Amino acid sequence: MYGMTLPNDPTVFWALVSAVVASLGLIWAVVSSARSASSATLLRRAQFYMEFTDRYNTQDMHSAMQTLISYYDSRPDDFAQHYADEFGKRSEEGIQLDKHRRTLNRYYVNIADMTDNNLLDRKMAMMLTNFQGLNIYYLIVAPMNRAKYANNEKNEQVFRTLKGIRKVFNDGSFALKPHETGTNRS
User: Are 72 and 140 in contact (CB under 8 A)?
Assistant: First the structure.
């Protein structure tokens, strides 16, 4: 080989073969490890999604959404201010509305906070907001937050972040109300 001669010793040949096989084994281990890490990451992400959406799929969340929609429909022109007034008086109605507002609010605030802090990528954030509760958040909860907290910048940042993730779920309707399916309130 171009002026080089290999020793005629079979030990050198087998040492060379061993080195090549070891190198191939190392490459295989690195590739397998990368595949395994990728699979483990996907599994962790799927588990996170399922656990996080378990919060959405509760009776408390469903009840909160139904109550907030009914409340909104009962006073569409002043629901947010009426809520803030009632909550300020610590009336039973105000306290109950606040409980339901907080239930839905916390779910979406957590998504916005994790997105703003780079703990959620866009794809996962879009999956987590792919529920009709997002429309209820935008049209009912966000105005209630503004009335309660006087347009607090943190609440506005949450709203902007969520709008950047998903402007509206589906057509903007409240599917919990079958007689209004297809109605766009946005």
Answer: yes
For residue 183, what pLDDT is reported? 44
Pick from 185, 158, 153: nearest CA to 172: 185
HSE of 12 in the Cβ direction (CA atoms, 13 Å)? 5
Q: Using an 8 Å Cβ cutoff, are 83 and 144 in contact?
A: yes
Q: What is the pLDDT of residues 10-60, one digit of tens each?
A: 776 677 777 777 776 777 777 766 666 677 788 898 999 999 999 999 999
CA distance 119 to 114: 5
**Backbone φ, ψ for residue 183 (5° rounding):** -80, 130
C-alpha span between 47 and 130 (Å, rounded): 17
Close Cβ partners of 86 (under 8 Å, ≥ 6 residues apart): 93, 94, 97
Which run of H or E residues covers position 85? helix 79-88
Distance of alpha carbon 44 from alpha carbon 47, whole angstroms:
5
Place of tokens 């609010």: 105
The HSE-up count of residue 101 (CA atoms within 13 Å, CB side) is: 25
Q: Does the pLDDT of residue 185 top 60, yes or no?
A: no
Alpha helices in 57-78 (DSSP H): 59-74
